[in-house]
Amino acid sequence: MVNKLIIENFRGFQHIDMNDLTRVALVSGRNNIGKSSLLESLFLMMDHAAADSFGKLSSFRNSFVTGSTTLWGPLFLNMDTSKHIHIRVMDESKWARLEYWKDENYLPQSVNGISEDTLVQFRTALKNDYALSFSYKEGDRDKIIENYHELGHFSLNNAGSIMREISTNLSGNEVKTQIPTQYFNSVYSRSTDNLLSSIGRYELEGKKNEIIDIVKELDPSIEDIITVAPQGVPQLYIKMGGKTIPLQYSGDGTIKLLNMSVAILERKNGLVLIDELETGFHYSMYGKLWNIIEKISKKSNCQVIATTHSYELISAVGENFDDKDAFSYYRMGRRNDGVTLFRYDFDLLDHALASDMEVR
After folding, report:
1. How far apart are CA 213 and CA 354, in angstroms?
2. What's the start-to-end Cα distance of the chain, in Å?
């Protein structure tokens, strides 16, 4: 579970610290201040070794780009690629540091599984472009000495394909697995692609009622979720009010809650990042939403970090989240030296709300 996050020269952050994170954390702030970027930095830390990590970041913003200027350039503060990006996290047992930099000298020499013809395509493209190099290191929390490190490079060919080269200090060049992480925003919240297999697995294990009970807290008329294969293509259907309808035709809140709940329950000791948590839910449901998040995040020991614009969502925490030590709230604001975070524990947030202080 992430306790501390430090970001430097990433997106709109010159330097920002996020301290004393709890199992459930909520972040608020004005538009374009960097709430989504905060979540993206954590996602990138956990997904940095994946060849498609930057493609995922672009798709989170509904952008599909192919060149380094548009794919990697926006990751750097003010698109200034002369300064290195640093992302650092600390959990209960270790520290980890991720660094990215523009590399105009890198040319891939040999990569396992990549043909020489393909390598030539990347080398040719890099003569007029640049690679993105990275270093990842981690060690025991109470020691400075590292015990694991990676050195890697990302490069693009003229067709927009990404190649990753990575070396580690483990035998067989093994890449260490990061904690399981899922990112949600308004685009991904309506997807049912992963739900089909997840619901089927829960049914085979005799645990589907766990999921049904969760969504019934939001909508008591829901009776069941079933798999139907019209024209041979499996789809999820929902039984509610005596009718059976495709899940995609149900409300946004139902699909989002299913996605979130399955993600949290399946990522034991993992991390789920939710941009604009309130989207898709009526404000009258916020209390039940906090009940659900507290219960299932505790069950799977999954950390949930979310952002919001909603005062009603923030104010609903007090009476609907029992474990005060498991919740923290962060207000993102601007100072002369850049963006900063103001941390509220449960009691301080409760006092601020009771005093009608602006906490968004």
Report:
1. 33
2. 25
Task: Give residue-wise pLDDT tens across range 124-152.
Answer: 888 888 899 999 999 998 888 899 999 99
Q: Tell me the C-alpha distance between 125 and 131, whole Å.
A: 10
Q: Which two tokens stand for residue 318?
A: 């007090």
Which residue, chain included where needed, has tokens 């989170």? 60
CATH code of domain 183-354:
3.40.50.300
Cβ within 8 Å of residue 83, ≥6 positions away: 9, 76, 77
Look at residues 151, 13, 164, 130 and name the one whose alpha carbon lies nearest to residue 76: 13
Q: Please, what is the average pLDDT of the chain?
A: 90
> Comparing C-alpha atoms, which of 147, 218, 136 is closest to residue 178?
136
8 A C-beta contact, residue 268 and residue 302? yes
Tokens of 14: 């010159």
Which pLDDT band, with edges at 50, 70 and 90, does 360 fall under? low
User: d(Cα 26, Cα 330) in Å, to the nearest integer?
Assistant: 6
The pLDDT, as a whole number, for residue 304 is: 98
Q: Compute the distance between CA of residue 160 and CA of residue 19 in angstroms, rounded to an integer.
A: 38
Cα–Cα distance measured from residue 44 to residue 299, given in angstroms and rounded to the nearest whole number: 26
Asked if the model's pLDDT at residue 66 lies above 80, the reply is no
What residue segments make up the domains of the chain, in order of their start? Answer: 66-177, 183-354
User: Is residue 113 classed exposed, middle or buried when 0-12, 13-18 and 19+ CB atoms within 10 A define those classes?
Assistant: exposed
Query: Could you give the count of Cα atoms lying within 13 Å of 101 in the half-sphere of its Cβ?
Result: 11
Which strands form 235-240's sheet, in the order they lie side by side?
222-228, 235-240, 243-246
pLDDT digit string, tens, across residues 74-95: 899 999 999 999 999 999 999 9
Helix, strand, coil percentages, rounded to 5, for the chain: 35, 30, 35
Q: What is the DSSP letter of 175?
A: P
Both tokens assigned to 278: 């309130």
- At 302, phi and psi to the nearest 5? -105, 130
Question: Dihedral of the CA atoms 343, 345, 348, 352 (nearest 10)?
Answer: 60
